[in-house]
Amino acid sequence: MWSAGAVSFVLIACFSCASVSADGLVNEDVKRTVDLSTHLAKITAEIQLANHGSSRAHSFTLALEAELAPHLAFIGASVKGEEEEDESLELKEKTIHGQSGKFFEAQLPSSLAPGAKLRVKVETVFSHVLKPFPTQITQAERQLVVFQGNHYLYSPYPTRSQTTRVRLASKTVESYTKLGNPSKSDEAIEYGPFKDVPPFSQDAMKIHYENNTPFLTISSITRTIEVSHWGNIAVEETIDLRHTGAYLKGPFSRYDYQRQSDSGISSVKSFKTILPASAQDVYYRDEIGNISTSHLQVLDDSVEVEIRPRFPLFGGWKTHYYIGYNLPSYEYLYNLGDQYALKMRLVDHVYDDQVIDQLTVKLILPEGARNIHMDTPYPITRSQDELHYTYLDTFGRPVLVATKNNLVEQHIQDVVVHYNFNKILMLQEPLLVVGAFYILFFTVIIYVRLDFSITKDPAAEVRMKVASITEQVLTLVNKRLGLYRHMDEVVNRYKQSRDTGALNSGRKTLEAEHRTLTSDITALQARLKAEGSDLAEKVGEIQKLDGQLKDLVCRSCQEAERLVAGKVKKDAYIDSDKNLAGKRQELVSRIDSLLDAL
Amino acid sequence: MFVFQVSAWGGYVFIINLIPLHVFVLLLMRRFSKRVYIAYSTFYVIGLILSMQIPFVGFQPIRTSEHMAAAGVFVLVQLYSFLQYLRERLTRQERQTLFSVAVCAAALLLFVCVVYLSCTGWIAPWSGRFYSLWDTGYAKVHIPIIASVSEHQPTTWVSFFFDLHILVCTFPAGLWFCIRNISDERVFVVLYAVSAVYFAGVMVRLMLTLTPVVCVLSAVAFSSVFERYLSDDPPAEDDRRNSGSLYEKAGKVRKQVLCEEGLGSNIKSLVSVLLLLLLLMFTVHCTWVTSNAYSSPSVVLASYNHDGSRNILDDFREAYYWLRLNTGQHTRIMSWWDYGYQIAGMANRTTLVDNNTWNNSHIALVGKAMASNESVAYDIMRLLDVDYVLIVFGGVIGYAGDDINKFLWMVRIAEGEHPRDVRESDFLSPQGEFRVDKAASPALLDCLMYKMSYYRFGEMQLDFRTPPGFDRTRNAEIGNKDVRLKHLEEAFSSEHWLVRIYRVKDPENRPRLERKPRVTSTANKHKHKRKATRRRRGFIKNKLVLKKGRRLNRKQRRTGLN
Q1: Do B494 and A311 touch (CB under 8 A)?
Q2: Of the candidates B314, B322, B491, which has its C-beta nearest A251's C-beta?
Q3: Distance from the A320 Cα atom to the nearest Cα atom in chain B, whole angstroms
Q4: Through-space distance between the first and last CA atoms of chain A, rounded to whole angstroms
Q5: CB distance A255–B456 less than 8 Å?
Q6: Do A27 and A161 form a contact (C-beta atoms < 8 A)?
Q7: Least CB-CB distance to B322: which of A250, A292, A311?
Q8: Model pTM score
Q9: Could you report the per-residue pLDDT of A523-561, keeping only the tens digit for each?
Q10: CA distances from B437 to A422, B405, B470, B471, B478 (A)
Q11: What Rg do the C-alpha atoms of chain A give, in angstroms?
């Protein structure tokens, strides 16, 4: 039953050869939607493709008109499955001889049997095809644009039946082509159905209508992604923005703009940029500093920045800014041993229905990354890799540079960069700092410890020598004074214990030590004299005073002996002791003052 | 150091006069030594050579009067040293005669030299800025551009206190402490302090030169007071001995120490606490002043709502950035000179005049354009190749430093150069007031600045209590609400109207006639024409009649033969 039907179908197809292409594919039913409600032209076509040929079809061809093809930003085809699951197809550009335009060959996931049907959805986005007309408007005027396209689906296959639905941005339409008596409702125009359209048929469609949606274009964007293995990914986008609608003619009146709601209706006051949910430390600046007119809103699944340029953008006006933020690297950086993979968006959202004329992506990988390999979701031009130097870099960080023109929202896709990185290299920078400090301190140590002077300063030398000698004298004299104090203690103990032996032995040690100390000091004094210092006299004076002091100590010792022996009365002893102590005190203070003067 | 200062600010003249003064005073005080001689000579020579490398300074250091003191002292120092050298070699009597004669002769010669050079024009006379330092009224009369800057006004006591707070009082004390123990360095500090106080009193902005020395001297004052009052234990013999070795007049010091011992610890602690309190207040005040008066950039304005939330008015940068991105690379912008550097820096565009105010005549021309009516101003602007005019207008938000408030200065500066075209009295009301409402003078209502400031402002009603066109800065309803511009058009106004930029239109191809074209009656002409046609074809009035024929030729030939 099925095969018979198929055979008969094929026969019919063969007879009506004129209306069937070489592949034998036919567009059975086409529903085209031309969405002109923004500044982009989004043309989607739902095609029911039938194989009227005799052989199985493995691929089919998509065609674009020669007028629109240069403006193509995005093209995608998908097969509509029964399970409501769209399967996107791989497209390959090709040429067809004798026909103008651009052609893509779409590989079918499973070949199409003769007589079988398939539902295909083709999505195309064109930028800069809506031309403002008039090209210059005043502030009070509304923006009118012209779209020039095709009433039919441009296809290498004959089309049995098709409709075209045009969605507009507003109700106001100046003019539109009236092929086949189209019906116009509020914001839409319906063309067709057209029956049995031959392949490659074109019929100019022209629609002139009001469109006040923001005609914003990013004339260039540089996206810099700097990866740090210490846990941070810094993203910065430098954006040149331009209003590509009708130019503002004549004056700009702030009064009208503030007081009349429809004044400057096509101008852009602000727009929203959606950043990843984990974005932190967002900044929005330009060359002359922070732009204070912005708001940040942290939502559950994203961070929304309401970007307001410093001034409203009218037709032809430009602005320039950069926006940057930090991301935690664990969300985007994966690793297996030394192998790393960075998965990030190649281009991110700037505003809804964005058009990017020129994109430059710079991916800065950590210093020492090797075997770098970039997997892009769509073809992109790679430039020569660069090197980037920041703090503590020695041989530079590899920078991957890639550029692409004419991008739209559909291009917001992930790029994967694989590379190898030795984890030990992470220690390089801290070690560098440690080493630098080590060298610094080491040089200081060497400088302080060693004498680098090439000439000797005799005066300074003598001064230093004298200083060291006097230092020694000071310690010795102090030690000697300590001896007297010790002797006092011995005497006191003797007074209580009446142990003559202890006293004698104490006296002996005092004598011995005193002698050595005094001789030492005398030797030092001689050295001082040799150095020609006048301090020698003072030391001599100290020695003299010390001799008296020594006598006093001896006398107090004798007095104590006499007291113990009972030769002196206690009162007399106390008197004499006080007397002696006073004298000693005086001597000690004089010695002290002399020592201070040293 | 000195070179950096020369390259940075014209205030280096202060230094180049202060250091010679110091040397001179040292000379008078007989404290002059070889050290000073070496230091000053090297400083002067190296400083002179290096400062002349700065393009703006050039040959000024040897050509202008401001620098002559330094040169004079340099010569004097050389002479003095030479005499000292001689003195070592001569007997006493010779020395005395020679000394007095030489000094007198040298001084006279120097003076005559300077006078002669100034008369012959080799040395430029004192500049106006310098005169205004000695005579505060001078600038107002002769150079309005100097007087127009608020920084050049004499300092009020309020601003002294505002900037220095308690230091106003402690600074003289520190000065006294310095004078009491005078030394070579302290002479410098004292001279610096005295001269800086004078200059700070003359000009607000010279407060800048005063502050360092005020800090130093106040610190001296506080430290010596605390040294006396904070030491808890009464000074023992050690201290006395130390002080004896440090100060020459030991006896005097000991007496003071005795006096001090007389002070009770209560008084000591009281004084200390009071001083600490003062210092605390000073810190609080300084923090407040820094945060309120000196931190907020004057480019970004902020206002506070009733609930304390902050409102940032970023109009200046808005307009400057618009200029930067949306005008041609080579556009020339006319604005009052105050905004010159800002436009150059932020908008990256050429200005006619900027904060480097040395070209007074140019500034006067801009002032004249602002003060003239639109068509005269248009001629000036065409002459100067102006593409945009930028003005600052604070009437919407009540910003007092706007161009209308500066306008009288523009008029005065313009009057200085163009006394026949611009007169200050024209812009004042009959009562001699400067006002913008209905009672304003017609010249003001018609001048370019007024028109640009209030263009379309007459329609604007800011709130319901005030009539439309109510200027918040001057609290007046403007006098000319129907402002029409012919040669200019509004190119941009910032969000709060603070900065308004006007585009200078190109002249029209064919000027439109404001009156009806004259119609001449054709009837008479027709009659004439008919008459003419009757006689000849193609009639041209007053045409030289050339007689055709051979006769003339023949005659010519004949004459030629003759």
Answers
A1: yes
A2: B491
A3: 8
A4: 130
A5: yes
A6: no
A7: A311
A8: 0.73
A9: 888 887 877 767 777 778 888 888 888 888 888 778 777
A10: 77, 14, 9, 9, 4
A11: 50
